[in-house]
Fold this protein.
Amino acid sequence: MYASREDIGYDFGDDSKVRSKPIKPNPNIDGGWAWMIVLSSFLVHILIMGSQMALGILNMEWLEEFNQSRGLTAWVSSLSMGITLIVGPFIGLFISMCGCRTTAIIGGILNALGWILSAYAANVHYLFLTFGVTAGIGSGMVYLPAVVMVGQYFQKRRALAQGLSTTGTGFGAFLMTALLKHLCAEFGWRNAMFIQGAISLNLCVCGALMRPLSPKDLREKYVVRSDSEENRAKALSHSTETIKSNGVPGEETEKKEEAANEEVLGSVQPIEIGGKSGSGRSMYGLRLFKTVSQLTVTVRKGFALWYSSYFGAASLFTNRVFVAFVIWALFAYSSFVIPFIHLPEIVKQYNLSRQDNVFPLTSIIAIVHIFGKVILGIISDLPCISTWNVFLMANFTLVTCILTLPLMQTYIGLAVVCALIGFSSGYFSLMPVVTEDLVGTKHLANAYGIIICANGISALFGPPFAGWIYDITQKYDFSFYIAGLLYMVGIIFLLIQPCIQKKQPREKSTEEAQV
């Protein structure tokens, strides 16, 4: 199965280079401002993922308002959830060029604009554009930086940090479900969306908190983990060092380009000093030239890193375990999204609305989801526990719950299954950790962008598919059965590839390590 923490190389004492050159750690790594990054990511998950988990409330309002089929109406929620994740690879390009902070602030404005414009919707198709596309793209531009920044600021307690930050999804689902219910009852769904748009502007504040680490700090964090990267390269036939040596601009290239720019700018400095007449014009021209040249270099480096990660000789897709991870993501997320979108309708069919109004089933999932993320994160950080094994066990539990849910027709039975769904879905906090173990910190943004893109495709087609099955059979049972079976196929892919990799290069890497 997947390598344990010891196999991956969390013992840093074996690297002679690290011993010979002691590194003074940045106090903000695993502490200091890192916890502000966790807070920022936590709030992002509340405002984005929490709001999306509460869309079942608005879905019922849209069904009554526009009188369309369940399959068509479900596309509004699916577009918003799906596009948030599907745009991940392209947001990775933005991050490479502009950084996480700028990308998140722009995304916060777009997300708020999508909510506000949706308040004036005349039909479902209008919501496709305003809520599905506009708010969805804005959400994606904030969500990916929030995850990536936590990965950059934490090394020893990554699983716990990601677990704490992503608990915002559970808190958000609980809070936003209650908030949207209250707002829709008091002011109507249109005004509720307008108010939610104003609240979403706080995403810009969350983005402003994402203070970037200096390149020096990132290099230090990368050097400390270099031994881990080499071992992972032998075990998984892909590593950050391989990517770096196959066309991605390295640190030496960056220094050469910066030196060349400084030389060019330095050679024209005498023009600024000489002759005071026209000095204002020359200074303005030089500043403009400097800005354009720096922007050009940044764009070139960012695009080269992004392009090589996806299409170059060192593509992330040369890692077969990572490819299996992507295939799993294509089937997994819909199984988690479908209950949130359609549970309110299922409760109504079973005549359980009175009990559900006291304590909604979606709120049960949300609350237990919080504990699931934290507990699974703490367990995964234990030195004797493999993160990959915890990840797989949680997936098996979740797929079992999805297949069992249609058999429950009482409130107590549904509540128990929903609680198990909430706890086992806490594995979401482990996804960035597993991704980083596969590809390294440097390529986390692009790799995780691919993973959430696959999740987005799953979320995009899952709820409309469930609604379409209902329109045909007048039952949601087959929707859960089919989603569960597809989910199981994805888990099988996760089990097969690590075993294949273990038989081939793993034995060789062990011998080399002993030598």
The two ends are 24 Å apart (CA to CA). The chain has two domains: 27-227, 319-504.
